Fold this protein.
Amino acid sequence: MEQPKKKKVKIVEVCKVAPPPAVFAAPSPPDSSTCPKSLSLTYLDLLWLRIPPVQRLIFYEFPTPDDPNTNTTAFFNADILPRLKHSFSLTLQCFLPLAGNLTWPKTSLKPVLVYAEGDAVSLTVAESDADFYRLSGKDELFEAREYHPLVPTLAMSHDRTAVLALQVTLFPNQGLSIGIAMHHAVLDGKSMHLFLKTWANTCRSRGTLPELKPFYDRSVIKDPAGLETIYTKQWLDSEGPNNRSVTCLEKFTKEVPSDLARGMFQLTRADIEKLRHMVKTQMAKNKDNEPLEHISSFSLTYAYIWACLAKVEGIINSEYQVLLGFAVDCRPRLEPPVPETYIGNCTGLKVATIETIGYGGLEFWLTKAVKAIGEAVKSLESDGVLNGAEEWVSRWFCAPNESRRVRLYTVAGSPRFEIYSMDFGWGRPRKTDVVSIDMNGAISLSDSSGNGDRGVEVGLVLKKQQMEAFAPLFAQGLVDS
């Protein structure tokens, strides 16, 4: 992995973007039921209270000016940046809480999200002399921390935390990037991408808001098991008595090591079909009495990445117990169902378990993982999406490292978010990646940048030596399948 020369990112401007003043001066201000100024957190929000901010980076090639002699920096400052700011301000009309702050008053039993007139979202404007095409390429491995100057820092303290921060970075004559930092206790992935797509559509249409009504009503999230009380107590007891902090856990605040490498890997639709055939063949060879009725693209992707990682990390035929964790959209699974446009967290946790004792090739472990994931998904029908939810905070976030040999893998993002469809007016993204996986070790998944391919892009951050072993193994496994 080549070591590039250190490049500079110059901060040009740090400003605040607020909803239009006319929103509050109008005879009919925003309806509190459709765009509230304060939101209480449900148990599904509290689940993510002290998780590090989610950071995403989106690269766009520079749009071609009408006049080929136009200075690109001048064009960016005169056209692109004002459009981004204006459309973002308009978008906040429908998403007022995102300009607010999260706090946990002593008088409140749980944290609250409050927006006050005058609150705004921090927007950093920067300029970089780095190689845009290298950073936005998908064939190179590079140091994980190279992305850090391109994403904003979310203003966080124990008493008060911003919900959202943005950064737009210009790469003169090459392209631009949009960096997002978001507090997970306020938005899940589906909500965040709904907001980002609304912003993109508003920018592309030069100021026309789409006919979209975000749904904020917290009363649809029922809590018969008292999970809100359970989670609140667990967070209060975590890292000290009566701890009302709204920033992330101390264990998540360590600096990202310099020996971590970032890579992007592609699974085309043809690759996924190859893996599906491999699994079916292996099941037939094993004379599996309970073959899966449906083998999803998600289970094949996750299982294949894990099988390659397991070999690289040396945990096959060991005493390790592997936990493959993933988020589940609760919206259609709760009673009553929650609208698709619900803004907030509405995801649960599910875990597939694999015992790694035994011998076998890639096909064997791929099939074993696919079956474990498939059975975990199927159990949602019989057990419900909230089965075991009482232990989600205490087990996955607050618990100390377990003494037994357990390896937990997790997933960030989803191809269903279709982030590559996000067009601000100058085409589809060249690349998008979840920067924060270098903090939590998750595997990021998104749709493919190829038009209509229906493939999957996989983002990974590993130690450099592991990444250099993973890349050829990943490629060869698809050739051999």
